[in-house]
Amino acid sequence: MHYRFMEVALATRDVQEQEDFWVRLFDARVLFRGRMMGQRYLRLLACGITLIFREQPGMPLPPGPDEEIDFLQHLGLRVDDLGAAMAELEARGARFVFTPANAAGYFARWQQRPGGASFETSFIAPPLTRERIAAGEYKHDVAILVGPDHLWIELNQVREPADTGWYPR
Questions:
Q1: Does 117 score more than 70 pLDDT?
Q2: How many CA atoms lie within 13 A of 99 on its CB side?
Q3: Rounded to two decimals, what is the model's pTM?
Q4: How far apart are CA 78 and CA 84, in angstroms?
Q5: 135-143, long-range: CB within 8 Å, 24+ apart, which pairs?
Q6: For the purposes of burial, counting CB atoms within 10 Å of the CB of 89, is it exposed (0-12), middle (13-18) or buried (19 or more)?
Q7: What is the largest CA-CA distance in the chain?
Q8: For residues 91 and 94, what is the distance between their CA atoms, to the nearest angstrom?
């Protein structure tokens, strides 16, 4: 049996705001609009996956920009050129809250928490090793932008050795 991701369904306060955001920034294609269980819904195709947004007008919002520093719940997109992707999306109205340029500030804030360490890896799947990472064979740069309802969208530029193949190309 072959399993593949098909869709991600998320609650939203405003279906139209989600549609406008995804179409403007990522050239999403609307597949369906309507009502589901009495609430507005939207199904669109963006970045190779179907996103479903179901309206929940009273939904409490998670912390937003300048409040959230963990970005635990996010959608991650792989890009070939992070700088070019950021420039393109900023020209379309994206607001980046985490970038390679301000990452050190986030790391400093993470270090001030109880427990201290901002990022600690206890396991690396073979064939990658700490030595290969230190030699520059693996690099992962990130930028995070904020969408409607404080939905975090993470752009990832990953350089990985051919023998890992962990991330979709």
A1: no
A2: 13
A3: 0.89
A4: 13
A5: 137/161, 138/164, 141/82, 141/100, 142/82, 142/98, 142/100, 142/103, 143/82, 143/85, 143/86, 143/96, 143/98, 143/99, 143/100
A6: buried
A7: 56
A8: 7
